[in-house]
Amino acid sequence: MVAAALVITVRLGYWQMVRHDDLNKLALNLRERTITDYARRGDILTGDGVLLATDIYSYEVAAHPKLIDNPKEQAQVLAPVLNLSEAELVQKLSSQESTVMLTLNAPVNAGKELTALRNAGKIGAIDFIAKPNRRYPGSSLAAHVIGFASASREGAYGVEQYYDEILRGRDGQIRAEADAIGDETLPFDLPQGSPAFDGSSIVLTLNSAIQNIAERELARGVQEFNAKSGQILILEPRTGKILALASFPAPDVNAFATTKIDAYADPVVSLPYEPGSVFKAITLATGLDSGKISRGVVLNDPGAVIIGGRTIYNSDRRGYGNVDLVTAMAKSLNVIASKIALATGAKTFYQYLHDFGFGSLSNVDLAGEIPGTVKNPGDGIWYESDLGTNSFGQGIATTPLQMANALAVIANGGNLMRPYIVDRIIHPDGSVEVRSPRVLRRVLKPETANAVTDILSKSILTESTNKANLPGYKITGKTGTAQIPVPGGYDPKWTIASFGGYFPADNPQYVILVKIDRPQKSPWGSQVASPIFAAVAQQIAQLTGLPPDDVRNKIK
Amino acid sequence: MKRILARWRERIETKYQELVEQARARWETLPSFGTMRIALAALMAFIFFALVYLMQSSNAALIARDLRVKQLKIQEIERENAQLRYEIAALASPSAIEQRARKLGLAPAKRVVYAEMPWIQPPPNELMPAFLPEGNTDAAPQVYETTDASVWEELLSVLGLGNLSDYVNAQTR
Q1: Strands, E, within A260-342: which ranges?
Q2: What band does B153 get if pLDDT is binned at 50, 70 and 90?
Q3: B90 touches chain A (CB under 8 A)
Q4: Residue B108, domain member (yes or no)
Q5: pLDDT digits (tens, 9 = 90+) for A218-256
Q6: pLDDT-based confidence at A185, cuts 50/70/90?
Q7: Which of A255, A224, A262, A216 is nearest to A134 (CA)?
Q8: Taking an 8 Å Cβ-Cβ cutoff, which residues of chain A contact chain B?
Q9: How many domains does chain B have?
């Protein structure tokens, strides 16, 4: 008897003292479970408060068929809650597997209903866990700006990728008492571990109404002219804020799993193009600012000019004789643009192009930006003839953002701003980080910017075929009809029709670049892109209550 | 030698017996009921503290459970709130509003008419500061000047609120 008691005592002592830690750990593992406490990914909103991206929750629901005696009855109860058919559920609940997944995507109210059913004893051996999913309420609204967050909650493209670290937050790990199966946490005690830290929310510079106007008019324009695609970019020249960035076709961001991944690449920052005659506005600005030509200069256009052994013609192959700068811009004369570049000189001309931001990243806060290509004298691939072709936007690769930002330099009195799309970041603790406009450098003298604005405004008024004019408002801008480079030369059939401009000319508020790729009905920027510019500008004026010039002048 | 050792042993044993007798005598002089009382008090104290501990720990467990239930409920409500926010945002997105407006027969304005209202002259820099050149946006007066107050005078008199200047003074006082 004593010996038996001694053995038991020794054994108990061994378990309680020697093996205490091991056994305790084993016991904890049996009754406790570590679960991921998912951090909420930050919202993305427009500047006027429209929600573009947010996290919603759905439930993953699993069953343990071997512990279920009445699969039919359970299926009957579960079917309406999980939005699954009874037959499918019966099949899954009768499985020979120890665990089967019933659904990965039960609606958010399923949690409450399943809990009630379990408490009522109507279901058993069913586990469910809530998981956040990224959703985009506007579907394709600003799709290219937003990008998407994948099922693994990693940001891809756009703001989702660029600000992934800020949006993502940090998942936590919590330990809690679980049931016998080990999947359901029981409220016996407060959970231990590291809590999740939610991500910060981001407020964009976009205005939802302006974005909607841009997207609607772009879609209408692309369809009307049977074009392949198109982009519209609207900037606030004084600050560099991107007010709208639209690309067509735009993917439905909620359907990222079934959409081709390259559909999300934003052509406005990722796809270079040869801008064509819109670039003449830049060439004009370099000539005037460098002092190599004056505002009142008259230049001779014989219809062709030879630069570096290459003959450059006007697009209509005609010569216009002595022309002033307004006529040169209205007729979009390649010969005059080449002569201005020649007068400016290669070194100065290319220095200006770099100052305007061509050939380098604008450092906009969007993923996937590329710098474009500007050849430079002395780099081995530059020829003298490039000076001529580059002057009217050929042989130079730029992104729509660079082009619009360069036009914004003229609209902004000569200052180059850093374009930006995130206005402020709201952290989970309520603190707000506000992004301010940043002047990168002065590119033009204010008087040069005014002179270019004046010339371009007048040139548009003299163009009877240009459909960019907006009744009641003086606008500034330049059309572009660019050839598309292909291996061995230029595509003989397709063009890129564009219009880049701003309004009102006396106090520019909006820089708008419209770019339509491969229009079938007409190849010309003045016929394809200009009316889209006018439609967008008119609606923005109405939306923002921007009075026409005569009304504003009366107020002044 | 043996005799000496035997004597020492005898002495020690005698001394030991004396000490045992003394201790027994002292023990017997102690009040036996007092000993029981101390033991009982100690036991009661032990039970009391054990009960307090049990009550505290079970109370803490209950509160923890309540907290956890509430935490789970809050999480549930937050999840439902996120879903509702999403649904509201989807319904309030510009394209959804535009679709509904078009169904109601509304269309974008084709022409905007600006009417002159000579009786009200709001300071231009207060009306639309964003659209005016820089430098014109400061020193906006707080009160609009009215060139003709008769309409308002009449309205106030109909309402029995006295004359306009009295009303303005009362509001700004």
Answers
A1: 298-301, 304-307, 310-313, 321-324
A2: low
A3: yes
A4: no
A5: 999 999 999 999 999 999 999 999 999 999 999 888 887
A6: low
A7: A255
A8: 40, 50-51, 54-57, 108-109, 111-112, 130, 135, 137-139, 141, 187-191, 208-209, 211-212, 215-216, 507, 509, 539, 541-542, 544-548, 551-552, 555-556
A9: 2
Contact with chain A for residue B128, Cβ under 8 A: yes
Chain A hits for B62, Cβ within 8 Å: none
Burial B44-67 (b: 16+ CB within 10 A, else e): eeeeeeeeeeeeeeeeeeeeeeee
- Answer yes or no: is B2 within a domain: no
Per the CB < 8 Å rule, is A551 touching B72?
no
Domains and CATH numbers, chain A: 33-85+98-178+191-204 (3.90.1310.10), 208-555 (3.40.710.10)
Q: Which parts of A293-341 are beta strand (E)? A: 298-301, 304-307, 310-313, 321-324
Nearest alpha-carbon partner for A401 in A266, A213, A238, A290: A266
Chosen for mutation from B62, B79, B110 (greatest number of chain A CBs closer than 10 Å) is B79
Domain check: are B11 and B88 in the same one?
Answer: yes
Domain that holds residue B18: 7-92
Beta-carbon separation of B108 and A212 below 8 A: no
* pLDDT at B61 exceeding the cut of 80: yes
pLDDT tens by residue, A73-89: 999 999 999 989 999 99
Is B154 found in the same domain as B81? Answer: no
Tell me the nearest-neighbour CA distance from B39 into chain A, angstroms: 28
**Residue B53 shares a structural domain with residue B11:** yes
Residues B11 and B59 both lie in one domain:
yes
CA distance A425 to chain B (A): 19
* A173 has pLDDT over 80: yes
- pTM equals 0.80
Tokens 């309680």 belong to A16
CA distance B143 to chain A (A): 17
Q: Give this complex's ipTM.
A: 0.82
A497 has a pLDDT exceeding 90: yes
Q: Given an 8 Å threshold on Cβ–Cβ distance, is B89 in contact with A50?
A: yes
A492: left (phi over 0), alpha (psi -120 to 50) or beta: alpha
